[in-house]
Specification:
By secondary structure, the protein is of the alpha+beta class. The chain contains 14 helices and 5 strands.
């Protein structure tokens, strides 16, 4: 059970016990007074006391009314400062009046006021002055001390109406109830202290967890900042590499065509001047296209051919330009759809074909190149083979290295063989479904 509920139950028990003991005492006092009157022994009773008692009916009415007013004040919660001081002071005065009616023979009601005040003040530092004041007041309400200043009739004097044995039993009952009230008060205070200590420990634990969470959050923020810096560096590196690949592809493609074309012009210059002019015009067009591609690459745009045409037409135009500029023969066959790829995929397919043709002419000295594109299950296969000098011991250069990087972006793979000319095969996963396997 929740400790706060236990405290509430204990407080309710104390309120009921105090009501029972007050009713018990005032009923006995009124009964005894009525008995003295009926037995004509009132004069003997008055001779033993120093003051005239109240009428028998007034004692229970006043005592219960004053105690009820005290209970009503206890139901007022949420007071602070001066309002709380006024409420506690009013409760103490009401308890003093009830104790006065009982001849200061019972002061346990002050324990109820103390318990209720401690319940209403959660902080221990604020509890101390109230507890000190109530305890001092509790000690002052004593018959032997106050009888010096007030003429009062003790509860024992009323009970002289009964025989000695009966009087002992009645006093014993009063003492048992009063002791039970004191015991409940002690239990209440122990539970109250334990609850406050538990609350303090819980708050300390929460603060510790909060501090730990803050430390972890700070460390996470530091790691996030480091990750952000690394991410920026990696992005910059990838972008530099991408631009380097684009410039390499465009410049390499253009310069290869220009160099090969110029070599052809040198051979034709004396034999066929008109053919040389045509060849030079084609070389100039390749150079202009290369400049345009370089500008677009620097601006991080797509190749000019893909900006103007779809992928298949861009590949065809590039092949025609190279054939015109270099006099190389390129056989191109495509048996798969090329109109369903994303821009990134189109860029990679285009650059792989462009780079392979450039390498075949520049490094392999090839004059015949075969390009074959097909779909096999969910893979697009690109095979490029030339009749060049080949390479028995292949060392990856800038071109092959960047082709592999591009394919890795699409989870593809690249293979090559230089034993009979040079052959390149690129395999790219297709992500646009199963329809349209052929042209």
């Amino acid at each position: 059970m929740d400790e706060h509920k236990v405290l509430d139950y204990a407080l309710v028990v104390m309120k009921n016990l105090n009501l029972i003991i007050i009713l018990y005492m005032v009923i006995l006092m009124s009964f005894c007074l009525c008995g003295y009157v009926q037995e004509n022994s009132a004069l003997a009773f008055l001779s033993r006391i120093d003051t005239v008692p109240l009428a028998p009916w007034k004692i229970p009415v006043l005592a219960v009314t004053l105690y009820g007013a005290c209970l009503l004040l206890m139901y007022i919660r949420g007071l602070n400062g001066f309002a709380l001081v006024v409420r506690v002071t009013a409760e103490m005065l009401l308890c003093f009046c009830v104790s006065y009616l009982l001849g200061f023979s019972y002061s346990g009601i002050m324990l109820l006021v103390l318990a209720d005040t401690m319940r209403d003040i959660p902080k221990m530092k604020r509890q101390f002055p109230f507890a000190a004041a109530i305890c001092l007041f509790y000690l002052v309400i004593d018959f032997d001390l106050l009888s010096i200043y007030y003429n009062m009739i003790p509860f024992d004097t009323y009970l002289e109406y009964f025989q000695r044995d009966s009087r002992s039993v009645l006093l014993g009952i009063r003492n048992i109830i009063a002791s039970l009230n004191t015991l409940i008060f002690i239990i209440y205070m122990i539970l109250s202290v334990r609850t406050q200590m538990s609350e303090k420990e819980r708050i300390m634990s929460l603060n510790k967890q909060l501090n730990t969470a803050n430390d972890e959050l700070q460390r996470a923020n530091v790691r996030l900042e480091e990750y952000a810096r690394e991410s920026v560096k990696m992005t910059e590196t990838r972008e530099r590499n991408r631009l380097a690949r684009e410039i390499h592809d465009t410049l390499g493609h253009a310069l290869t065509g220009i160099i090969t074309g110029i070599e052809a012009c040198t051979a034709l210059m004396d034999v066929a001047p008109e053919a040389t002019k045509i060849q030079l015009s084609a070389i100039a067009e390749v150079a202009r296209q290369g400049v345009t591609d370089v500008r677009r690459s620097v601006k991080a745009l797509r190749p000019d051919a893909l900006e103007k045409f779809d992928l298949e037409n861009a590949i065809s135009r590039t092949i025609n330009e190279i054939c015109t500029a270099t006099n190389a023969e390129i056989e191109y066959c495509c048996e798969a759809r090329l109109d369903c790829f994303t821009e990134d995929e189109e860029d990679i397919i285009y650059r792989i074909i462009q780079e392979s043709i450039t390498n075949s002419i520049r490094h392999g000295k090839a004059d015949y190149i075969q390009i074959f594109i097909e779909r096999e299950h969910d893979m697009l296969k690109i095979r490029i083979k030339d009749n060049g000098i080949g390479c028995a011991k292949i060392q990856k250069g800038f071109g092959l290295h960047h082709m592999e990087e591009r394919l890795n972006m699409l989870n593809g793979r690249l293979s090559y063989d230089g034993t009979d000319g040079f052959a390149v095969e690129a395999v790219i996963p297709i992500r646009w479904g199963n329809g349209g396997t052929g042209r």
